[in-house]
TrEMBL record:
UniProt cross-references to HAMAP family, sorted A to Z: NAD_Glyc3P_dehydrog
GO molecular function, one term: glycerol-3-phosphate dehydrogenase (NAD+) activity
Gene3D superfamilies: N-(1-d-carboxylethyl)-l-norvaline Dehydrogenase, domain 2, NAD(P)-binding Rossmann-like Domain
Cited function: Catalyzes the reduction of the glycolytic intermediate dihydroxyacetone phosphate (DHAP) to sn-glycerol 3-phosphate (G3P), the key precursor for phospholipid synthesis.
PANTHER family: GLYCEROL-3-PHOSPHATE DEHYDROGENASE (PTHR11728), GLYCEROL-3-PHOSPHATE DEHYDROGENASE [NAD(+)] 2, CHLOROPLASTIC (PTHR11728:SF1)
Pfam family, one: NAD_Gly3P_dh_C
Full protein name: Glycerol-3-phosphate dehydrogenase [NAD(P)+]
Annotated binding of NAD(+), by residue: G8, S9, G10, A11, W12, G13, A140, R255
Binding site for substrate: K106, R255, N256
SUPFAM superfamilies the UniProt entry points to: 6-phosphogluconate dehydrogenase C-terminal domain-like (SSF48179), NAD(P)-binding Rossmann-fold domains (SSF51735)
Pathway the protein takes part in: Membrane lipid metabolism; glycerophospholipid metabolism
GO biological process: carbohydrate metabolic process; glycerol-3-phosphate biosynthetic process; glycerol-3-phosphate catabolic process; glycerophospholipid metabolic process; phospholipid biosynthetic process
């Protein structure tokens, strides 16, 4: 049976480690701060990021990357996206030949505009043919509680995707496969932008119609950028697109959604970020997406308005008004033009 290292012990890393260990899979969870690793090993719980879930016997905890990674067949990286590169670089010397490397993070590296698998391909070239990404509507706490959901794992090598599907699937966690890594990663990252906007919408009391319209137009924007970047358009109708958008834009469990609500209540971004110990990837992804939109020449009006609210202190009411008052257009305009999948 496989032996797995989960790199990153936030809410999602801990949840994935619990899921695997509860299946009887030999699993180790890596935490970058030795004192926190020692706490978790002693308390058998992650009290900071996922309180209330006892670690099973098979779940090891370490702050030693060599111990975490050596002799492991599968390495799942679940660190904040802006930390992915440094973590991958640090673990590279210990990676076993033939190990499968999975990103379960949802973001874009700001300095390079790379997706996580692109970062991993650069830092772990030996594993280039065995890279994968996991995404979907997976609010950590619900998955940890054993509430049913689905996810999608992407790998260029279909056999690897199928292997990971078997590894990760449970009666409560149904995993699908795809070869569209680009689509899975962009869907997972870009939905966080829309989730912040949906939180602002909810915080302003704009209601269900507005949220539904926002999610749908957000999906159009994600699809435009994603297809321009080489993703299959239908991926965005799947779990890593529409599925994750609906979950994240509707749930108070989403940190991105919470951040949006707090912005609508008048809090400043800096204050909100300083008070959060969790990562709200959408803040960084908003900046990255605007640069990608420029690179590919696609329109992202929601992302543009959100950037004004996040980074320029723009009034959210004014931002919504400006979105509503844009020139009229056809619903499907610009959606999949330029997609290599549509002639
Ligand atoms: N929480 C969820 O529901 C969920 C679900 C799916 C995907 N994700 C994605 O997983 C990734 C991680 O999120 P999370 O929710 O597990 O984390 P989190 O927000 O709960 O906690 C942040 C984690 O990052 C760690 N960290 C901070 N600096 C680090 C560094 N330099 N090196 C290594 N680790 C560092 C912290 O110790 C902590 O464990 C994000 O990209 C997120 O979008 C989260
Ligand atoms: O809590 P968030 O906003 O980072 O979202 C968590 C997951 O991505 C939901 O699938």
């Amino acid at each position: 049976m496989a032996s797995v290292a989960v790199i990153g012990s936030g809410a999602w890393g801990t949840t994935l480690a619990l899921l695997l260990a509860n299946k009887g899979i030999d699993t180790v969870l890596w935490e970058h701060r030795p004192e926190r690793a020692a706490d978790m090993a002693c308390l058998r719980e992650n009290r900071l990021f996922l309180p209330g879930f006892r670690f099973p016997e098979h779940l090891g905890v370490t702050a030693d990357l060599e111990e975490a990674v050596r002799h492991r067949e599968v390495i799942i990286l679940v660190t904040p996206s802006q930390r992915m590169r440094e973590n991958a670089r640090q673990l590279a010397p210990y990676l076993e030949r033939g190990a499968i490397v999975v990103s379960a993070s949802k973001g874009i590296e700001l300095s390079t505009l790379q997706r996580m698998s692109e970062v991993l391909a650069e830092e772990l070239p030996e594993a280039r043919a065995r890279l994968a990404a996991l995404s979907g509507p997976n609010l950590a706490r619900e998955v940890a509680e054993g509430k049913p959901t689905a996810a999608v794992v992407a790998a260029q090598d279909e056999a690897i995707a199928i292997y990971l599907r078997t590894l990760l699937s449970t009666a409560r966690y149904r995993v699908y496969t795809t070869q569209d890594i680009t689509g899975i990663e962009l869907g997972g990252a870009l939905k966080n932008i829309i989730a912040i906007g949906a939180g602002i919408n909810d915080g302003m009391g704009y209601g269900e119609n507005a949220r539904a319209a926002f999610i749908t137009r957000g999906l159009a924007e994600i699809t435009r950028l994603g297809t321009a970047a080489g993703a299959h358009p239908l991926t965005f109708a799947g779990l890593a697109g529409l599925g994750d958008l609906v979950a994240t834009c509707s749930s108070p469990l989403s940190r991105n959604h919470q951040l949006g609500r707090r912005l609508a209540a008048g809090e400043k971004l800096d204050e909100i970020l300083a008070s959060m110990h969790s990562v709200a990837e959408g803040v960084y992804t908003t900046r990255a997406a605007l640069q990608l939109a420029q690179r590919y020449g696609v329109e992202m009006p929601i992302t543009q308005q959100l950037a004004l609210v996040l980074f320029e202190g723009y009034d959210p009411y004014k931002a919504v008004l400006e979105l509503m008052m844009r020139d009229p257009k056809g619903e499907m305009e610009g959606l999949i033009e330029g997609s290599i999948y549509v002639s």
